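Note to self: user wants both folds in one dump. Writing first protein now.
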Amino acid sequence: MTTDELVLNELKETGALLQGHFLLSSGRHSDRYVQCARLLQYPDRAARVLAVAAEQFRPVPFDLIVGPAMGGIIVAYELARQLGKPGIFVERENSVMSLRRGFAIAEGTRCIISEDVVTTGKSSEETAKVIRECGGEVVGIACIVNRSAELIQYPVWSAVRLTIETWPADDCPLCKQGIPWVKPGSRGNA
């Protein structure tokens, strides 16, 4: 079994790879959605999947893993556990990502950003801004699923890469069929 097959199998068996009609946080529509929280509820499965991503950047020198809340918190913890490094998270305060809870990033700290899914890179870039403002350096991004079609300015190490088609709301074939959409995820209603 290839690593892609292993990861896809875990996503499907945990119900993390959803089929349906989804309104994404970008406003676009899709017929598939990845809800990694369903995978992350199983520590043994999450460990197997994240080991695939961890192996890709194991030889890269870094000091700290930083995950954006919510999706990056458990990912940061598990990657840090596997690699023997500290893992922290940033969270929104007044709609702006910031370090709280006594977390700090010292000047010169080489950081890897952890995510569950990378799509547009928005949360990663907000996290990178916090790291840079502290004087840290972003080495790359580690995630479970890379579904980014856009240019991300850092290396991305993922357990699997998925191409999921999306459509503008006014040109969605599922809307034209009268199929109701749901808005999943941390920025949605589910």
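First done. Writing the second protein, which came from a different request thread.
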Amino acid sequence: MMRLLLHRQRGFTLIELMVTLTILAVLASVALPLTQVAAKRSRENELRRALWTIRDGIDAYKRAFEEGRIRRSADDTGYPPSLAVLETGVTDQRDNRGPRIFFVRRIPRDPTCDCPERSNIDTWGVRSYASTADNPQPGRDVYDVHSLSLDLGSNGIPYRQW
């Protein structure tokens, strides 16, 4: 009889197992949204860094243009003709040996773009100097860049307007 009692006390009851599984399900349902928010914030931080990198390269190109280090023509605005120029560089007009001036090491990829078939440069929308801020359009130069994503940021502003 004593053996039978000891044997029955070793296992878990069905109710104990159900309570444990319910607690685990509640914890998982709380953790999932937190990981999604953390992933979105991480992607947004990447977007901020990428925009800063490209915009800093555009500004560096403009400074080099104003310093006379880039070949000029009468109708140039001083902004790069394409994003690729920031990466491939231009010949320094001040130096006889003609070294190249590079403005970014590489064009970063837009982290909000879920399009693996596109190149890094093609993941960005560009705004020319001649277009308005509320309706950015490409043109013969690159004055600014923006994300092509239609999603909203965690601050409620579309990524396209960052």
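Dump finished. Worth passing along: Residues 79-161 form one domain.
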